[in-house]
Amino acid sequence: MTEPNPMRVLIADDHALFRDGLRSLLEARGVEVVGEAANGREAVEMALELRPDVVLMDLTMPELTGIEATERICNQELDIAVVVLTASDDDVHLFEAIKRGAQGYLLKDLEADSFFALLQGVARQEPALTPSLARRLLSELRRDDRAADDPDALTDREQQVLELMVEGVTSNRQLAARLGVSENTVKFHVRNILDKLHLHNRTQAVAYALKQGLVDS
Predict the structure, then answer these.
(1) Which of 170, 169, 162 is nearest to 213 (CA)?
(2) Structure confidence by residue, pLDDT tens digits, 58-67
(3) pTM exceeding 0.85
(4) Residue of 104, 99, 127 lying closest to 188 (CA atoms)
């Protein structure tokens, strides 16, 4: 019986030591590492040239971010699965990566056996998501479905951000500290608030919220 061809993987990460360790781990399990990219632009170029089965994509890289590189690769509609492999447990990164076309989102602290089980599932067109991340993603999708009837409706978190802004907590750092999230997450929510309310800045958002009674004054 013919042995199945080994999975062909491209590693995209700007930390050389991590790439070396991941390559050794993959090759020890019979995975063929076809290349290593040190930044997002290299990841896109090498993916299009080498046509791997899977790109293991870090998020925080120079040239292009992992999110941007993921979108560019997935937009080519090639038979290449992009799986984010990152240390970021941020919901915004998770949701954005999946929206841009990633087939999975894995954290770097994952146990090796779990990592390889999920990676093998990618070959069967299965999403590479741990149960906890899958639940968070499903919850977000449900919120999106509820918002479809009223695209300008603020989510509970956006409402909370708006209320804090009215209270005078307006900087990203202050908002992040009060909410217990990253500053990038705050920026994401503020941008959504401004887009939904059709406003240009936070001052306008505060004035609008008070005028329209969106929050208690």
Answers:
(1) 162
(2) 999 998 999 9
(3) no
(4) 99
